[in-house]
């Protein structure tokens, strides 16, 4: 594993060597720090960046963090499987996934994507390690990684509120011991903190509303009348944007005090009513783009490929949807192995991770209609990690059944 980890680190470096650190219009927002949501971004990435002396050091640190996190996940997957050959193959598959161009290209950006991907891998690794050897130390480490992951991006904090509700019910149904209750209370507190911080920035709230109004609601023939019935100010200016072209941050509406006040007071309830007009469409439309948005390559900057093209596109297609194939493989292998005892239900963890990506994706679709290719990268990685774990767990059971049959 040391050899694989070293090779992984060298290839991650090779993917970006010779490239200058890249800043975008969003990068400046990743430096102010606030633990209550008053800054432009949540605090994990700003704390990380402020601890380093320059962008070059930040890029190298992102590669180092990625190496540690993805190697930890590969080790956790290997230790979760009983077959020695499959364990090594599983570890290799995880590291290859972490070398896909959709992952490596973000190391050179002064943005949240690289840390979001790395901490997501580390969180899964911590969960797998805790499953194998439950202890107070591993529980504390898992919760610490969870806190860092939640406060990496606003979408993480939002989806964690949903995940936390399910997790709390599951914990309390399984056990009412003081430790379980304490964990449930901790999860609830983290969800409340993250939810509050994620909605605390008024500028981001207004920008998201403007995007949704111009690119979604006003695209619907009934949208203008729906907003007019709710006395939204500056509606004519937004209609002109919808007709002539989205102005983004240059929109004068963002400086309109009456419109900002209306957004603060009425937007959330108004948007919920808009979605509830046709709740089936609110799910059908985004899910119709699920496999497309979770494949492909966000072309933000050229990234040096480190994997052969057939392997790269098998793991994470750069042009179209590879996910239907891997979803079918995961289900078929699971069905083939379903008669075998599940040994701690490792496959359930894999499918659970993949399932958690669905509300995460829906939240991204309905809250951030622009830059969806970028926002979906951590979701796409988590979905593939979940499917890989489910496939490996099922193969592990099948191989043990085959060995047992030969022994008999």
Explain what the structure shows.
70% of the residues lie in helices and 0% in strands. It is mainly alpha-helical and 408 residues long.
Topology:
Elements (H helix, E strand, L loop, with lengths): L1 H15 L27 H7 L4 H26 L3 H14 L3 H4 L8 H20 L3 H15 L3 H21 L3 H21 L3 H14 L7 H6 L6 H10 L12 H20 L2 H10 L1 H4 L15 H7 L7 H14 L9 H22 L4 H4 L1 H31 L1
Helix pairs in contact: 1-3, 3-4, 3-6, 4-20, 6-7, 6-20, 8-9, 8-18, 10-12, 10-13, 14-18, 17-20, 18-20
Whole-angstrom Rg: 22 Å
Low-confidence stretches: none
In round numbers, the mean pLDDT is 90
Structural class by SSE content: mainly alpha
Task: State which percent range the strand residues make up.
Answer: under 5%
In N-to-C order, the SSE pattern is HHHHHHHHHHHHHHHHHHHH
Shape label: globular
Q: What is the count of DSSP helices, taking H or I runs of 4+ residues?
A: 20
Give the count of structural domains: 1
Task: Count the beta strands.
Answer: 0
Helix content: 55-70%
Q: Biggest sheet: strands, sense, closure?
A: none
N-C termini distance: 34 Å
Summarize the structure.
The chain is 70% helix and 0% strand.
Question: Could you name the key traits of this structure?
Answer:
globular; mainly alpha; single chain; 70% helix; 408 residues
């Amino acid at each position: 594993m040391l050899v694989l980890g070293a090779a992984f680190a060298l290839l991650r470096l090779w993917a970006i060597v010779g490239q200058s650190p890249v800043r975008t219009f969003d990068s400046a927002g990743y430096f102010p720090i606030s633990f209550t949501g008053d800054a432009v971004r949540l605090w994990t990435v700003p704390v990380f960046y402020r601890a380093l002396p320059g962008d070059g050091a930040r890029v190298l640190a992102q590669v180092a963090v990625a190496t540690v996190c993805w190697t930890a996940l590969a080790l956790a997957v290997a230790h979760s499987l009983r077959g020695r050959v499959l364990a090594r193959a599983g570890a290799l598959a995880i590291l290859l996934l972490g070398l896909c161009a959709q992952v490596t290209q973000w190391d050179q950006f002064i943005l949240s994507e690289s840390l979001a991907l790395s901490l997501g891998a580390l969180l899964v690794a911590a969960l797998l390690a805790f499953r194998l050897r439950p202890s107070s130390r591993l529980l504390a480490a898992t919760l610490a990684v969870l806190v860092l992951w939640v406060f990496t991006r606003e979408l993480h904090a939002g989806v964690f509120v949903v995940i936390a509700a399910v997790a709390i019910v599951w914990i309390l149904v399984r056990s009412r011991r003081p430790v379980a209750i304490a964990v449930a209370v901790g999860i609830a507190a983290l969800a409340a903190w993250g939810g509050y911080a994620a909605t605390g920035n008024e500028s981001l709230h207004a920008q998201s509303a403007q995007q949704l109004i111009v690119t979604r609601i006003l695209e619907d023939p009934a949208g203008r009348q729906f907003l007019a019935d709710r006395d939204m100010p500056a509606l004519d200016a937004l209609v002109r944007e919808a007709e002539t072209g989205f102005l983004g941050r240059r929109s004068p509406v963002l400086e309109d005090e009456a419109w900002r006040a209306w957004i603060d007071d009425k937007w959330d309830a108004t948007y919920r009513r808009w979605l509830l007009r046709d709740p089936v469409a609110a799910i059908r439309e985004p899910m119709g783009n699920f496999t497309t948005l979770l494949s492909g390559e966000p072309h933000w900057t050229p990234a040096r490929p480190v994997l052969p093209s057939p392997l790269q596109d098998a793991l994470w297609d750069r042009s179209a949807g590879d996910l239907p194939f891997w979803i079918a493989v995961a289900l078929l292998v699971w069905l083939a192995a379903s008669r075998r005892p599940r040994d701690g239900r490792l496959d359930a963890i894999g499918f659970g991770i993949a399932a958690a990506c669905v509300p995460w994706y829906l939240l991204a679709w309905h809250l951030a209609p622009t830059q969806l290719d970028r926002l979906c990268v951590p979701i796409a990685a988590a979905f593939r990690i979940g499917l890989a774990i489910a496939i490996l767990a099922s193969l592990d059971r099948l191989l043990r059944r085959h060995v047992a049959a030969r022994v008999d």
